[in-house]
Amino acid sequence: MSDTNPLAGQSALPGVLGMLDNAIARIESFILASGVLLMALNTVSNVVARFVFGESLHFSEEVNRILIVMITFAGIGYAARHGRHIRMSAFFDLVPTQARRYLMAFIAVVTGAFMFFLCYYSYTYILSIYSTGRVLPTLNYPLWTMYVWVPIGLAVTGIQYELTAIKNLTAKKVYLSTSVKDGFDEPEQAIKEQE
Amino acid sequence: MATLMIITMIGLLLLGFPMMVPLTAAAILGFYMTFDGFGQMNVMVQQMLGGIRPTALIAVPMFILAADIMTRGQSAQRLINLVMTFIGHIKGGLAVSTAASCTLFGAVSGSTQATVVAIGSPLRPRMLKAGYKDPFTLALIINASDIAFLIPPSIGMIIYGVISGTSIRELFLAGIGPGLLILALFSVYCIAYAYLNNVPTEPKASWAERRSAVLKALWPMGFPVIIVGGIYGGVFSPTEAAAACVLYALILEFGIFRSLSASDIARIAKSTGLITAVVFILVAVGTSFSWIISFARIPQAILETIGIADMGPNGVLISIAIAFFVACMFVDPIVVILVLTPIFAPAIEASGLNPVLVGIMITLQVAIGSATPPFGCDIFTAIAIFKRPYWEVIKGTPPFVFLLLLAAALLVMFPSIALFLPELAYG
Amino acid sequence: DTWRYAHEEYEGDVQDVFAYKFKEYVEDNSDHTVQVFRFGELGESDDILEQTQMGILNFVNQSPGFTGSVIPAAQIFFIPYLMPTDEETVIEFFKTSEAINEMFPELYAEQGLELLQMYPEGEMVVTVDEPVRSPDDFQGKNIRTMTNPLLAETYRAFGATPTPLPWGEVYGGLQTNILQGQENPIFWIESGGLYEVSPNLVFTGHGWFTTALMANQDFYNGLPAEDKELVQEATAFAFDYINEYVPGLSEEALQTILDSSDEVTVTRLTEAEIEAFRARAPQVEEEFLSMTGETGRELLEQFKADLEAVTN
Ligand code: NA
Ligand code: NA
């Protein structure tokens, strides 16, 4: 899928906050892209190893377990930033624009709150895993380290939603995220775009 | 407790919350009520992480990545051209080609969304220009993309296989028959539509053009060979087939077609990561949701209430079909599979139904439900991608939904539509 | 009260039978009820153990092989040819062993778990695409093992290529020849239909599939004396039942397999053939010791002393 907004990577925030936000965005995309590529490399190598050398890589499964946690929790922040989380908007779309702005702000505030809630409990869960000293059996890698992404990702996502709420309260249009506007195109535009 | 959880979930859903929130909220409510407070929220997190742990799920991002590489490169376009040069010129040919391209592309892509983008984005403008109405075009794209959900690979089947312990490779083979059946039904409707609305036909391709299109599409046709042949022939597990597809897509687009450069790969990886995360966060919170209802013994209570024990296999199959269809009209298919499969698991086991057949029925219902108004989530995918208002998008869907339901009825009457291939393969 | 009890097998399997016997005794002899959760209902094996440690579940049945990531020494059951193959001796060993009944409870206690009973589920039987009689026959064969490092070492020592895979991929892997074999107790081979796709059963005599019933320690310690006694009695009741049940079960399962397939072959290694495999066990023992250090060494020594005691 293409990024619908070419400016979507630029922070809508002013000054230092904007710089910080842009830095986080870059780190997020870096983690996301490298996570997917490492997973592809690992999975493909495992297949090649089995066919060419007749033996699977023992660590392959556990490496993928680490990567999938990383991709998921780096990705939810990125998806929030680009307004790409799956939602059902049938009734939402019927609401007039000005009211929709407030509804969106409400949705964003509450969504952010849920993210912070999960963030807190994922932190306490990691503490409990840390205290048991549980490891990944093959890599002998402490389990809690692979879960560090969870509270970080949830916190970043929560912040994104709170910023979206502010954006909707301060701007004139409805925003799905800090930089993605809600709205429609005409069919003719699709033809024009292709030509 | 169950009632309160469901009311919370549907309420938040209708307001337009991102889908992870209704599920999270319902799960938290369940934990709060079961344990008298937030004392056991650690288990909620444990189950979120447990949900994205199974190895078989790795196939999901790998298939998405392969499809993404093909869409940004030339493979998808070459498949479309192949179909167009052969059937583009018949009455309704452009519409039939769209359906056929979705089916063909479905043999690489595991998700409806990816197919809407890969096939819908280039073909919708062409259909509009040729004189098809936008509601028909949108409805066709939405519903034909559902064929991709049935043709292997399929993310829905992978997730059903993981949580029900059913063989993913048998599910993959079983999806092919119903997928082709739906393609046939849609093609008939497309041709009828073109006659009724007198849509002009496209110029006929010459044999030279056809030959060139075939040659160009030979490489991308390797994907179905890897997936179906590899799994059928016992060379690959589904996850390995996914990895092989990624490798093949990279070789094609970077090595042979030279359609992508190294700088594209980061963009593609990001987009794959994004789609993966959006799906997997639902898998994560959905797993917590099923844990709490399982812990509170809610499935047993629900099944007892509807008296499923006395229904017999066909009754169970039809109940499952209805439940998944209705649920998918409201919620994302992945979420529905995650939430409902564990609820029905005891009934499926007791009824002696073939779990592969159940899986295909579920996948089909999920596909239909998610394209069915009022709230099917494919509709919202199309709204997001094509930027069209809700009511415009749903206007053309009823005939397609009717045909899909017809396919489901045929499947209940003739299960061998699905089971023929796996039985041929594995006896 | 309602006591929650989770195990890692399906309806009718050994752990399920044990659980329902436990439930039967508790409910017949007290006002408590026991809710049994089967495989997958509350997550995977690791999850239910953790939930018991958290106190959400009161009882959990988990095989020491899965406990390996928390208690490495529990992998001792994967050292091949440590235990005898005849059932009576094995059951006697589980009843009398100091290692099992005194040392293991301490290891589990460190994890907040009260070990109630360890018990054998059945002898490990290998199924292969062709009968195997020597380590040479194992050459180049992918044998699926549980995802446990020591078990992988066993099959490497036997000459095969260990392939750790989750349970869900085993049947398909065998069917499509990605795997050439796997190991499991005979009742699993029967109930999972594995003999249909991997028909050559080899009784190598290298080990027993062992499992353990545990309780959350705070829960157990907080029980009044009569309830503690009730738990102990219910465990003993289920254990006695299982000791009768398991030997018959293996024979029954093998008979069912032979009745339903003509392809199945049964290979029982002779003492001389076993010797060739046994000769490779020390390499696994060393790996075990390097994983577990002093704790493992003490446990292994006691294990051997206890076995000495029951075999003589
Ligand atoms: Na597909
Ligand atoms: Na769908």
Q: Roughly what fraction of the amino acids of chain C lie in strands? A: 15-25%
Q: Can you write the helix and strand succession of chain A as a string? A: HHHHHHH
Strand % of chain A is: under 5%
Q: Largest interface, per-chain counts?
A: A-B, 65 and 78 residues
Total helix count of chain A? 7
Structural class of chain A: mainly alpha
**What's the number of extended β-strand segments of chain A?**
0
Rounded to an integer in angstroms, the radius of gyration calculated over CA atoms of chain C is 19 Å
Q: What oligomeric state do the depicted chains represent?
A: heterotrimer
Q: How does the overall form of chain A come out from the CA principal axes? A: globular
Per DSSP, the total helix count of chain C is 13
Q: Which ions, cofactors or small ligands are bound in this entry?
A: sodium ion
Count of DSSP E strands of chain C?
10
Topology of this protein?
The complex is a heterotrimer of chains A (195), B (427) and C (312).
Chain A: H1 15-53, H2 60-81, H3 90-94, H4 97-132, H5 143-146, H6 149-170, H7 187-194
Chain B: H1 2-15, H2 20-35, H3 41-51, H4 59-72, H5 75-87, H6 93-106, H7 112-130, H8 134-150, H9 155-164, H10 168-197, H11 207-218, H12 222-232, H13 238-256, H14 262-295, H15 298-305, H16 312-328, H17 333-351, H18 355-371, H19 377-386, H20 390-394, H21 398-413, H22 416-426
Helix pairs in contact in B: 1-2, 2-14, 3-14, 4-13, 4-14, 5-6, 5-11, 6-7, 6-8, 6-10, 7-8, 7-19, 8-10, 8-18, 9-17, 9-18, 10-18, 10-21, 10-22, 12-13, 14-17, 15-17, 16-17, 16-18, 17-18, 18-21
Chain C: E1 2-6, H1 14-29, E2 33-37, H2 45-54, E3 59-62, H3 64-67, H4 87-96, H5 98-109, E4 113-128, H6 135-138, E5 142-145, H7 149-157, E6 161-164, H8 170-175, E7 181-185, H9 186-191, E8 200-203, E9 208-216, H10 217-221, H11 225-260, E10 265-268, H12 271-278, H13 281-311
Parallel strand pairs in C: 1-2, 1-3, 5-6, 5-7, 8-10
Antiparallel strand pairs in C: 3-9, 4-7, 4-8, 4-9
Helix pairs in contact in C: 1-11, 4-13, 5-13, 7-13
The structure holds sodium ion (NA) (2 copies).
Tell me about this structure.
The complex is a heterotrimer of chains A (195), B (427) and C (312). Chain A contains seven helices and no strands. Chain A has 195 residues and is an all-alpha fold. In chain A, helix 1 (15-53) runs antiparallel to helix 2 and helix 4 (97-132) packs antiparallel against helix 6. Chain B has one domain. Chain B is 79% helix and 0% strand. In chain C, 50% of the residues lie in helices and 19% in strands. In chain C, 53% of the residues are buried. In chain C, helix 5 (98-109) crosses helix 13. Classes of the chains: A mainly alpha (195), B mainly alpha (427), C alpha/beta (312). The structure holds sodium ion (2 copies).
